[in-house]
Amino acid sequence: MSSRQLSTPSLPKQKPASVSKPSQSPALSTAAGTVLYTDTVPIDAKEKIMDSVYCKVADKYDSVTDVMSFYMNKVWKQWFVERMKPIPGEKLLDVAGGTCEIAKRYLTYQDEVNGDSTSTVHVVDFNKDMLRVGQHRLADTQWIKDNRVTFAQGNAEDLVDIADNSMDAYSISAGMHNLPHPEKAVQEAYRVLKPGGRFACLEYGNVDVPIFGHIIRWYWDNMLPAIGGWLANDRPSYERLARSVRSFPHQKQFSQAIRRAGFHLPGKGYELYQCGMMVVYIATKPLNA
Hints:
Elements: H1 46-57, H2 61-68, H3 72-84, E1 91-95, H4 101-112, E2 120-125, H5 128-138, H6 142-145, E3 149-153, E4 167-173, H7 182-192, E5 193-204, H8 210-232, H9 235-246, H10 251-260, E6 271-273, E7 278-284
Parallel strand pairs: 1-2, 1-4, 2-3, 4-5
Antiparallel strand pairs: 5-7, 6-7
Helix pairs in contact: 1-9, 2-8, 3-4, 8-9
GO molecular function: 2-methoxy-6-polyprenyl-1,4-benzoquinol methyltransferase activity
Catalytic activity: a 2-methoxy-6-(all-trans-polyprenyl)benzene-1,4-diol + S-adenosyl-L-methionine = a 5-methoxy-2-methyl-3-(all-trans-polyprenyl)benzene-1,4-diol + S-adenosyl-L-homocysteine + H(+)
Pathway: Cofactor biosynthesis; ubiquinone biosynthesis
């Protein structure tokens, strides 16, 4: 990543989400109240902790993620964008999209596959340093010159500057596990999407294949922090990221939360990449919503 500083105006900020009462751990709950999501920090501290983590790792985030995924990260994101089936002329809200990997692939797809030059992406991320990296990456592109990409610092759980029923599509890639209340982010996605709009989420999953699953869990707990320490000189931040990933609910449980928000989620509700190392959820807001 170049050290050249990008001169950009201050990012618009959304007001912070309301803080829940202190709790021992964040929880994604079923209608019956079963706790699905537990983490190792108090619920009211997670947002601040994760913001601190991403301030430290922003400049090397994509390169470290590429190495730790054996460069499958880029493949997964390309598959994800293709699975979203972008529609010409639509408005995409890309949440937790700071480094613009999804925005870049989405607009490339629109340009090269759909022959479309009117679709737009609004990138929202809670971390200013991740957004800085994304702005720098796209600074010299025609997309910026044509105002097809815009940026805002904001909270996925409280998208106060996004109007109801205003977006054609919503994407979030490897961002849900960072949130104190993932279910609130899903509800916000439902609110801002137009009827018929598409919700697309790419998230780390649970590998249920017995031996492979044990290997992956060992890798997350041991090798990911080691790689982060080696490449980014910041083992503690990658230990925190690994714990955040490992504490996220099973794909069967998270798909239930998406349905409870009101989305139509076909079939079993998710698709697995590499036996569940990554999971894709593609849902639709009903036309009569």
